[in-house]
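TICKET: design request
STATUS: open
ATTACHED STRUCTURE:
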């Protein structure tokens, strides 16, 4: 993880993948338990459900 000189941004390596159910997932090894899932949801006006888990630094 690298923090910018002005402290306004953080640079991290992430993994992104598309699952067989159409959901998109993003993880970051440098942030413990960090997982974002964008899940297709036809009941929502935007058509997606966003799930964010854990934001503790490793």
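STATUS: resolved
RESOLUTION: sequence designed for all positions
ATTACHED SEQUENCE:
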């Amino acid at each position: 993880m690298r923090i910018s000189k002005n402290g306004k941004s953080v640079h991290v390596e992430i993994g992104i993948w598309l699952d067989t159910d159409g959901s998109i997932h993003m993880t970051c090894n440098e942030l413990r338990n960090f997982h974002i899932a964008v899940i297709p949801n036809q009941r929502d006006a935007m058509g997606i459900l966003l799930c964010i888990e854990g934001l503790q630094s490793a």
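CLOSING REMARK: The beta strands are 2-3, 10-11, 15-18, 24-27, 31-32, 35-40, 48-53, 56-57. The mean pLDDT is 80.
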